[in-house]
């Protein structure tokens, strides 16, 4: 029963109410440990969580025990992340908070100015009155939470520790310090929330390229409807300046469309009748009539939204380490503070009040929020930044893995080469004409989606209708080798020489000029009838992309099912480290496992077109689908999807990943360094509570602002160097 519940389909919920990053980590930990809920990740950046509907009441109770006032609200597909009412309420609450902070600030300043006159005089009661008023104005919520959490046994809650530190300061008559801690804690919390919200809004802006309406063509009228109401086969009108609301095929009109929201490519693309347009593109000039080919839930834009928004469910190793570290950091600091308060006075007879003040100072910096906020925010910013460049990364773990790559393995066709084939030579055997040979091949390849099959049908030049295929009795794709078909009672083989030779048919192999062509052999009823030569072109930026990877010190490998001559020519042209040819799909998986198991090779990425490379993409440490725009197979199978058909985008993905990791480790080093330094200084009486509050709230704020830089990172302009030297290429034919 428990296993059934844990596998129950999860629904997305928005978490409303105020809670800090450390509380988010606690909620996540308790939810994951609860029977029936199982492994759960809270997306703190946009305050969402996926939960089994049957366990929502239980989850609500768990979360409210940690942070009172938080509520779970189910998110419908049509809903915005924040409704206008919620936004207005949040703005009003922020205004009230700012007013309280300003009033407390004025009182605090007055207390400082007159402190020397009031202390140890008949006016001392006014000192208490002014300072305590300021203290309670900004600290009453913290105190209330502390009392509630105390009864719940949460002794290491930051509210309780902050209250303990400030109440202790008041008890030893350090009134200005107590007020300063609570005031600057409130200011820090306010600024932190503003910074996180700014990052959240930039993320939502990315997600808000979701089209809001569709112009449905209904008889002689055009109706404005929600995109989710439009069905496959219906027609929609897209006017200039409007977003394309659903994936479809243009049936009337021509225009230029802006694809930057999907691909990061700023140059508009020309589209006309017969072309495919995708949801999220912006029509810039003409009016388009589009026949819908996918419902909105299956459209490219919705898949992208889901990927970007839910990427936080896959945590990086660094993020997991920081979450675990935070669990032990606060108790450890509290133990240190307790030891400092009790041990020195008991052993050396020192001033108890002095050592207590030092301990209270250390308590102020016991909250690990700077780390708990900035690390996931940094990864989320990196994922968002990559999506601006047309690179979809499914999780922080894959973003981190891109920084540890040592080997990049490429498929050839459609990845390094354009995958646009042309039949350049037709060589029929005696008794057959060129037209007869191409007709036999085209009819046998009538149902194949492979680019080579498409090029054969295009060379045939006639559209094959159902009436032309009535004699096709059997059709079978032989994986990695070709087609076996029975047509008008005759067995036709079209494919590699091995396919024919396995059937006992001799194939007079021809020498392909320069090795830049693929040989397709054809037989009918056991007799060899001819051969086709089909050529492919290397993509314009493949050479520069490989050169960039080589300069990074990465090993570049090509795996292909093509013949050794073609593979060698492409490998030498691109300066690849190694290549392996004549491979079946299962051979590619075997080679990938070999690279993965090799000592010192690091992580291995496989880059393919995402259509017929799913097994290898899945097996790689990082599966990268090239040219995934509109490809369901690419988006499903890969860990990283490069929307444009450009190998150079892989370099951008690695640059963004490395920059993100650099920022995150800057935050970790800075936050830990400052906190440990202040703890050390406070231990020797060289740091007071003013310094401690900076070490807590100031460091957290700086870490958040630093993490936000990742979102707007631009890759170096020289990330695509020209390959000037051809490296030694290892030839390995299967």
Helix/strand layout:
Blueprint: H1 2-6, E1 11-16, H2 21-32, E2 42-43, E3 48-51, H3 56-66, E4 71-74, H4 84-113, H5 115-118, H6 124-151, H7 158-171, H8 175-207, E5 214-218, E6 221-225, E7 235-238, E8 248-252, E9 255-258, H9 260-263, E10 269-271, E11 276-277, E12 282-283, E13 288-292, H10 300-309, H11 317-348, H12 352-364, H13 369-388, E14 391-393, H14 396-402, E15 405-411, H15 412-416, E16 422-428, H16 434-444, H17 451-460, E17 472-478, E18 482-487, E19 490-495, H18 497-502, E20 518-524, E21 527-535, H19 542-551, E22 555-559, H20 564-574, E23 578-581, H21 585-597, E24 603-608, H22 614-619, E25 622-626, H23 632-637, E26 640-642, H24 649-683, H25 689-708, E27 730-733
Describe this structure as you would to a colleague.
- With 734 residues, this protein is of the alpha+beta class.
- The protein has five domains: 2-75, Alpha-Beta Plaits, CATH 3.30.70; 85-214, no CATH class; 231-294, Distorted Sandwich (Calcium-transporting ATPase, cytoplasmic transduction domain A); 299-416 and 538-734, Rossmann fold; 422-535, Calcium-transporting ATPase, cytoplasmic domain N, CATH 3.40.1110.
- 49% of the residues lie in helices and 18% in strands.
- The strands form five sheets. An eight-stranded mixed β-sheet has the order 14-26-25-24-15-22-23-27, with helices on both faces.
- A hairpin with a 2-residue loop joins β18 and β19 (490-495).
- α8 (175-207) packs parallel to α25.
- The chain is elongated.
- It starts with a helix and ends with a strand.
- 45% of the residues are buried.
